[in-house]
Amino acid sequence: MKLICGDCLCVMRDMTDNSVDAIITDPPYFQIKGGFDWNYKDFNHYLEFIEQCAVEWKRILKKNGSLYVFAHAKRVAYIQVILDKYFNLENNLVWEKIECQTRMGINNFRCFAPITERILFYSREVERIGLGEIKLYTDNFTTLRVYFKQVQEFIGLGEKAKREELGHGGAISCFRFNSNWNMPTDETYAQLIAVFGIDKMEGFRKYESLRLEYESLRRPFNNVHKLTDVIKHSQESHISGQFKHDTIKPLGLITKLIETSTRKGDIVFDPFMGSGTTGIACKNTQREFIGIELDEEYFEMSRQRIDLELLL
User: Fold this and answer.
1) How far apart are CA 294 and CA 296, in angstroms?
2) How far apart (Å, rounded) are the C-alpha atoms in residues 77 and 97?
3) Rounded to whole angstroms, how far apart are CA atoms 204 and 245?
4) Whole-structure pTM value
5) Nearest alpha carbon to residue 289 among 69, 21, 60
């Protein structure tokens, strides 16, 4: 657990490349709620700040990491345009507040009552190139790619010849080193052993060890809570009301995101720590946490809150 009081941009620039497994954060929304929302000259200045953050997020997030960014419905389109340049959008999630005070005054609006917020969910697994073409990073699964290239060289046959020997009508996934690279199935690997004797090659590895490494290198996504792209969740005002912060996010919601996109022991980073909710969720789910907060009062509040949880 590492808590830092300071400017997130300054702190992030000193962080190591590819050092965090997930970023879950609630940055200022720009002139929506909270004094921190008015700390920008204008909207363009705010967007410049978001892009500066995106550059650092891209650098410090692991290649199999996940990024969750909370955003207001009126701002999310602008933020998505920026983040799309650096990450692959998996979902534009909608958080529907099932216990929202706005519902009680629904007739007081001259528009449809706002009872939702957005959560942009990104991965680093792919890039958009040219006319929106999506390809996997060629340095994903590096050790496995190297191993299967050695297998290919050991066999010494072209793709067509290998298919004929194995009786495959289609391509063999383990020999694809382009954007469609995949692990072979257990069945295909057994055929490679039976037909080509790859178990005699130097450095041969059993399939189970390859599978375990493959799973460890993939981006974690375990939807144990069966979430969809519309997440219905309470604001948990009975909890947030205990802390002096304008935009506290519900502990239960943050916990679900953490459990879906990280493994135990992973490092979760929040550059806008606020009241410390993400840190509490990490403590409860056995994840490591790095949090940054600029405001000294909020930092001290979140530090005390997290310290208290650590004692329980």
Assistant:
1) 6
2) 20
3) 56
4) 0.81
5) 21
On whether the CB atoms of residues 273 and 6 are closer than 8 A, the answer is no
SS3 57: helix
The token pair at 190 is 């057994």
Name the DSSP letter for residue 110.
S
Are 278 and 240 in contact by the 8 Å Cβ rule? The answer is no
> pLDDT by residue (tens digit) across 16-27?
999 999 999 999
* Rounded (5°) CA angle 166-194-188: 55
In whole angstroms, what is the distance from residue 84 CA to residue 237 CA? 33
Is the domain covering 2-125+219-311 a CATH 3.40.640.10 domain?
Answer: no
* Residue position matching structure tokens 């706005």: 102
For helices 186-196 and 142-155, the axis angle rounded to 10 degrees is 30
Supply the pLDDT for residue 133: 37
In 10 A of CB 9, how many CB atoms?
15
d(CA 305, CA 301): 6
pLDDT tens readout for residues 300-311? 988 888 888 766
Q: Are 240 and 260 a contacting pair, CB within 8 Å?
A: no
C-alpha 298, offset from chain centre: 25
pLDDT of amino acid 312: 58
Q: Does pLDDT of 34 surpass 60?
A: yes
**Residue 206: half-sphere exposure toward Cβ, Cα within 13 Å:** 3
> What tokens were used for 123?
């991965």
Give CA angle at 63 (61, 66), nearest 5°.
60
| Residue among 23, 96, 89, 28 at smallest CA distance from 274 | 28
Per-residue pLDDT tens over the stretch 152-189:
889 887 666 666 777 765 445 455 544 456 788 888 88
